[in-house]
Model the fold of this input.
Amino acid sequence: MAVISIERMGLLSVVCVSLFFSSTFAVDRGNFKTCDQSAFCKRQRALKPGQSPYRALLETLELSDSRLTLQLINDNNKVHLLLELYRLQGNMTRVKINELKPLKPRFEVPDVLIAEPPTEPLSVLSKDDNGVVLSLGAENQRLIVSARPFRLDIMEGPEVLLSLNSRGLLAFEHLRLHKDTQAQADGAEVKESVDGDQQQDEGKKDEDGESEKEEDGLWEETFKSHTDTKPNGPTSISLDFSLPGVEHVYGIPEHADDLKLKTTDGGDPYRLYNLDVFQYELYNPMALYGSIPVMLAHNTQRTMGIFWLNAAETWVDISSNTAGKTVFGKMLDFVQGSSEKPQTDVRWISESGIIDVFIMLGPKPSKVFSQYASLTGTQSFPPLASLGYHQCRWNYNDQEDVKSVDQGFDQHDIPYDFIWLDIEHADGKRYFTWDPHKFPQPKEMLQGLMDKRRKMVSIVDPHIRVDSGYKIHNEITSKDFYVKNKDGKNYEGWCWPGNSGYPDFTKPEMRAWWASMFAYDQYEGSMENLFTWNDMNEPSVFNGPEVTMHKDALHGKWEHRDIHNIYGLYVQMATAEGQIQRSGGVERPFVLTRAFFAGSQRYGAVWTGDNAAEWDHLKISIPMCLSLGLVGVSFCGADVGGFFKNPSTELLVRWYQTGAYQPFFRAHAHLDTTRREPWLFGPENTALIREVIRQRYALLPYWYQLFYQAHKTGMPVMRPLWVDYPKDTATFTIDDEFLIGSDLLVHPVTEEGSRGVTAYLPGAEEVWYDVHTFQKHNGAQNLYIPVTLSSIPVFQRGGSIIPRKDRVRRSSTCMENDPYTLYVALSPKKFAEGELYIDDGHSFNYDTKKEFIHRSLTFANNALTSSNLCPDCNFLTSSWIEKVLILGASKPSKVLLKMDGKETPVDFEFDTSMSVLTLRKPGMNAGADWTLLLQ
Amino acid sequence: MTCLHLLLTLVFAVSLGTPVEIQRPRGVPLTKKQFYEESKPFTCLDGSRTIPFDRVNDDYCDCKDGSDEPGTAACPNGSFHCTNAGYRPMFIPSSRINDGICGKMTLHLDISPQQCSMHGMVLHLKFFLCTDCCDTTDEYNSGAKCENTCKELGRKEREVLQKMAEITKEGFLLKQQLIEEAKKGQQEKQSKVTDMQENKKQLDEKVEALRTVKETAEQPEKEAKERHLKAWEEQKAAIRLEKDKAKMAETFLELDDNADGFVSVSELQSHAELDPDADGTLTEIEAQGLMGGAEQVDTSTFESVWPKIKDKYHSESQAEEPAPVETPPDEVKEPVVDNDSEPYPEDDISEEEDEDDEDEDDYHEDDDKAQPTIKTPEKTHEDEEAMPPYDADTQALIDAAQKARDDFEEAEKALREMDDQIRNIEKELSFDFGPDAEFTYLYSQCYELTTSEYIYRLCPFNRVSQKPKYGGSETNLGTWGSWSGPENNKYLLMKYEQGTGCWQGPNRSTTVKLTCGKETVVTSTSEPSRCEYLMEFTTPAVCQEPANIDPSPHDHVEL
Done:
């Protein structure tokens, strides 16, 4: 959580206090920079599309097997850049641009790519004075390097898929000496505000002198009371991308905005800068807690991705030649045949580092996901229990409180797996410790939970209380692991404990030490059912510029400016590693983080931060998690109920219904809100909440299998409809409903007092079954669904098989050996398929020892067959198949189970009204080969 | 307590059971044994369908009401019966069968009553959790190694129940006393109010009578005083006239420099201060003007000149020493200031005493009015001479009137006090002190609990407050609102509302939970939600009549 309780933070500086005393419930925008207030963004954005001053020096071209290098020159300032091109395996191209001879090295982001991406040979198809044509291998794909001005085009056949610097917005502020030190050495050189400055007359103005340049913020910049000393001067970079034929772009989270990205003309660009935003506002491009600089471009023909690997403050401008045109206008263009092709133009601007771009060419959505996964890794495979329900609050006051909430769940027969402890559990906000009065016996408490087969999460934030009586602080100090300020002293800032130091998580030694702190003998009172929550890891610094760390703070030789957006990733990385190590590498970790970056999906779950108990916040949770899913982070959720303020009962119930169908399912509440455990709103509402949490638990086998798939392939778990229906333009902007995997379609009710919702059921060939009534609906229609407070519209796709565990217990672990019910939803062609994945639910043995069961379930020709997808796997389960429901079936005369060469009859029932065939207790082990024959 | 009733009923029911294990399907209570006959097909208890008996407890749910699977977890709404020999039988939701969790019922002497919902019944269990079977019969196939804890539990429960029963018994006795006292007190108060109201009537009359006496005595007093004053005024005027005359004569002599018996124009001109146009010089014409056009005036004619000049005229003898003239007023002022200051500075009066204070203020005002009459002589210090004392007749009239006033005021004050007392008693009588007024004794009492940080103070029917142990101001956690327990017994909870506001939050409020105890004590406080406090309070006043069956000797049949 991020809100500062003034009562508790009496020592805050006046500046900081005023920051949080806004009377209305909304972000105080004045605390955060607009592009105009961020000097490099303003400089870069002042540069308008036009002829690029960059020229490729073709004579410098060098081609090794898979790497092409070429120098670029800026004709205005004669600074040379080095272009590197790689053809990567899996239909990707990497474009790197750096200074040929920088004054000192520029930062290149480490630890994001899981490995140096494997390359494939590049070959020159043709070359002349105007440029070079390279082959990208299959499908007639070519990469064209144009020399004057420099631009890159990726073609497939006659089509341009994507162009770089086609609008001439490549701009590279080269490292330079400060004017004082420069000492008129090259007074003749025209100073430029941006390297790519094309307007010579503007260049002349720069000679006016000192004052103008200071305004440009090249060497120093002040925002509110904070001055950013910029010892390296201007270092920003920018590049434009044109996407012909593309009208829909997605991704670049985290923003509280619609799924489909909007054009940014006339407003601020989308900002990527990890910030602790108090009471964030919806539907705008302001930066939030995390940043993933990945954008997806989609049309009916193709899906592509752009991954801009840069961890500095980044702004993304989007414009479109069709934006603002009405449907009628577009139609007119079409009829008149005069239409220019729709095109989206994107421009990325970062404050420092180099240009390092991965162009993922798809062409299918699933291919883009696997391409991105091949670069940054997939979603970590979470422990099964973490897919259950999480009960959190700032704060569960003491051990008794934890015990009575735990008992409350049993008394009301509501399952849950994790109870959470926020910052008040620690002794004076010293993480890794326990308040001696409130939590005197943490092990006793954890044992009590373990007896119930439940778990706990405690918060461990990366700000460390400066306190000579605190072991963690003393060790970090003695090992010199703190981030330094610009003067080389330990950087200190205000956070929950008061004055705090910030460990330098960019240091591998620091991370190793941090990980070791999670060992059972180091983190006193911890046990194997205690997991971790990393909050405030943007990092949040209450009295820092924009509530974060000063950009001139130092991480070794790099400035915080260079690494800012990856700090949070490192915190979660080190924490997850600690959890793995404490179990000797056996157990899977579970770590929740608020800040994130490209690659964070490898370390755990993410939530959307400090939302509010408002209907719009419930709505926005869908596009926010969909956007994260598109760029690798599947394990996403929003605080159920809303963090700030008190939800109405209706909103709370609706939020549970929505959250139960989102990947990370946790209720959370601010310290100042009234209690809202699920049973506090009367028996009727308790029953509604109980019901939907039970629906979640029944579907855990499906969720788990989807996470296994996400872990293996990079396919998002919670998906926009267009991912599975890429040619159906009606799906392209839908973000009030979503798919879980390919087979469940969910349209949560997010309107107050709603009496009905209209859900779009995609797929002209599809049928969809209401999972509650089994009623069948045709695809490619807008279906009006009347709703009551108990409704959560969910549909299973005809053609799918979903395994459920309908016996809901107190926790997911209690359900381990329970039998499965298979929900077979037939397609119009009487076909269905699905999978079943089973392992121990918590260890790495699935990976290290192949201890899992992975089965393919197919219904075809009136036979349902389970076959082994992993014959060399070994895992034994006592779970069995207790029931099979076949939706859209016709009544058989006889049902036979074929197994081990024997045929035995199976009892069945047939419901004619809904055409549901129920096979009674076929009884085979879930890991066995079998066939059920309908005759 | 109601919960105790339920518990005991259950225990009692079992103790009547046959002490032999009767064969029946797993999870079926004895009371329902007759529905599960192995030789017959089974009909779901809701009558919805009939199935072959081998489908009972076959780990597949056939009945919508879950009745075919009493011993497995197959039905989502099933319930499992465990005998719990040595303890007491119970139902648990069938989802708890073979879930790997043992019936580890721990004693929680330190926790508040828990509600445990089992099979539609809601029990208040103060000490035990009831989620699993202590006899381990619910974990027959989960691999969990559970220990049978029923005996131990039974023993502990008996101990606890016995203790509770004792407490209840003694508490209930105490409650009877409280009710007795309260009834008595109430009657006393009621009759007191009646008496007082009677007295008040008399007092009213007395006040009216005294008012008449006062007014009758004040009339002659007023007249006598006025007479005396008038005589004194006349006397003073005569004296003043004499003085003026003397001054005039003196002045005449001073002006008549040549002592010729006439004051001439030139002699007058020597006194420039008499200049009528204030130009600094008294011209001849001006002087003549002052003298009514005459060149000179004699003593008798001077009489007409004197009024025109006497205000400006500077005596030749005084002119040399003007400084001391300004000092006397200062000396006069100081005592006046002292007189005005009130005996109790307002700042010292705390807000809570506001109401009382107003009354006091009234008295002060009366005092202030009284004072001037005494102090008048001193205040008129500027006057040349003090007023002569009243003559004996007048003084007698004054004394008589003063006495009448005093008597009247005293009676009036007594009436006010009487009114206050009646109001207070009526207020107390208007409180809802429970069906038998058993909570009356808590009125105007306060109970404290000291924790590591704070001292909590509960003043029933008044307010709850919190004060830091080591200095700092008191915070109001709510003032008396209402009884807010459940419908069947609203006297189990007290609600105190509208306490000090929280920063960006609601006003503080406190719920006080009352449980049966021999002593009247605040046993714990907590803040489950921010600024919403919970206080646990034991009192004999909520102790229910113990059940007829004495629980202590009841024999737990070892089935």
Notes: Helices of chain B lie at 2-15, 150-255, 265-269, 284-290, 299-309, 327-340, 354-379, 392-430. DSSP finds eight helices and 16 strands in chain B. Chain B touches chain A at residues 58-60, 73-74, 76, 93, 95-96, 98-102, 104, 110-112, 114-117, 129, 131, 142, 452, 502-505, 526-532 (CB under 8 Å). The longest strand of chain B covers residues 475-483.
